[in-house]
């Protein structure tokens, strides 16, 4: 039984669920979970949680992401990416100064409102939007507020011109951000229909592209007995939260999941991680109803429990 975080490089043409299915066969274990979906046409960092680490999956899912995208100005599609049928097209000659594009990118940083695309997994009335879209049914989609930390223009040209203009950007954003929709929003601000031509996720929380293995590399390391060395500890998924040692008096209470007086760090933080040596034993958070107290959110067990 493997345990830890496996930073996987998801290749194009596969869903996140496909990756989990393949890994269950390669590793011969069922307790495997991914940390947020990537569309089949998107490649990039997909941290996979193995064994006890599945308890920490939501923290990776909720952490920030970094993407590199190619934005195409001049044509919009029904899926908001290159795979969809054309909805609107404007092939007039376009000319943008780099500074104009940078200004638009800056205007879309911070908290912005997005409406999820019809071809997405968001549920409306218990049904995913892409199911409505495939049936040709249009439904009202709830808007959401997302946080864009930074958008950087990566293409080095000073002037972009042509009938269909493309440029590459890097986006650092919070959870729930649709880069496809952001691409359309960039086009709207430039005054033209647009879509996302390609997308790569280069980081998910603390996990980067250089950390990752492909499925084939995972298989090879498993066969050679080297896979354990490639796994990252559960604690790497908890790096956004402050960690504190649990002393011999406190540790038994934490392992029993008791509600306790709030740790001083919780005056400024939402969560703290209690450690037994180098091993995370529990994530505690401020009690939602009882002021001055804290309650366990996730329990990982003590160092003595490791098998």
TrEMBL record:
InterPro entries in the cross-refs: PsdUridine_synth_cat_dom_sf (IPR020103), PsdUridine_synth_N (IPR002501), tRNA_psdUridine_synth_TruB (IPR014780), TruB_C (IPR032819)
Pseudouridine synthase II N-terminal domain boundaries: 24-179
Keyword terms: Isomerase, tRNA processing
CDD domains membership: PseudoU_synth_EcTruB
Location of the tRNA pseudouridylate synthase B C-terminal domain: 180-238
Active site residues per record: 39 (nucleophile)
GO biological process: mRNA pseudouridine synthesis; tRNA pseudouridine synthesis
Pfam families hit by this protein: TruB_C_2, TruB_N
Catalytic activity: uridine(55) in tRNA = pseudouridine(55) in tRNA
Molecular function terms, GO-annotated: RNA binding; tRNA pseudouridine(55) synthase activity
Enzyme class: isomerase
SUPFAM superfamilies registered for this protein in UniProt: Pseudouridine synthase
Gene3D superfamilies: Pseudouridine synthase (3.30.2350.10)
EC number from the UniProt entry: 5.4.99.25
Record-stated family: Belongs to the pseudouridine synthase TruB family. Type 1 subfamily.
Role, per record: Responsible for synthesis of pseudouridine from uracil-55 in the psi GC loop of transfer RNAs.
Name of the protein described by the UniProt record: tRNA pseudouridine synthase B
Gene source species: Bhargavaea ginsengi
């Amino acid at each position: 039984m493997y345990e830890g975080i496996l930073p996987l490089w998801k290749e194009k043409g596969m869903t996140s669920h496909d990756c989990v299915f393949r890994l269950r066969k390669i590793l011969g274990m069922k307790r495997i979970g991914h940390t947020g979906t990537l569309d089949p046409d998107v490649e990039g960092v997909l941290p996979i949680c193995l064994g006890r680490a599945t308890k920490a999956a939501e923290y990776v899912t909720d952490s920030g992401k970094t993407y590199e995208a190619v934005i195409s100005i001049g044509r919009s599609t029904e899926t908001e990416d290159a795979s969809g049928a054309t909805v609107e097209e404007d092939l007039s000659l376009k000319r943008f100064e780099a500074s104009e594009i940078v200004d638009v990118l800056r205007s879309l940083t911070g908290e912005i409102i997005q409406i999820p695309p019809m071809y997405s997994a968001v549920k409306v009335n218990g049904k995913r939007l892409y199911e409505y879209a495939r049936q040709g049914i249009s439904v009202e989609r709830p808007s959401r507020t997302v946080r864009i930390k930074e958008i950087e223009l990566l293409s080095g040209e000073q002037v972009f011109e042509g009938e269909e203009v493309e440029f590459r950007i890097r986006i650092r954003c919070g959870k729930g951000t649709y880069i496809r929709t952001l691409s359309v929003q960039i086009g709207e601000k430039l005054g033209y229909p647009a879509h996302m031509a390609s997308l790569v996720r280069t980081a998910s929380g603390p996990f980067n592209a250089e950390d990752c293995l492909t499925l084939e590399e995972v298989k090879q390391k498993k066969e050679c007995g080297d896979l354990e060395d490639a796994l990252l500890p559960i604690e790497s998924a908890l790096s956004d939260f402050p960690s504190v040692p649990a002393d011999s008096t406190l540790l038994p209470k934490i392992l029993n999941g008791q509600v306790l007086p709030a740790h001083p760090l919780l005056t400024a933080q939402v969560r703290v991680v209690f450690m037994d040596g180098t091993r995370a034993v529990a994530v505690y958070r401020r009690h939602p109803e009882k002021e001055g107290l804290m309650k366990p959110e996730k329990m990982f067990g003590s160092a003595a429990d490791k098998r």
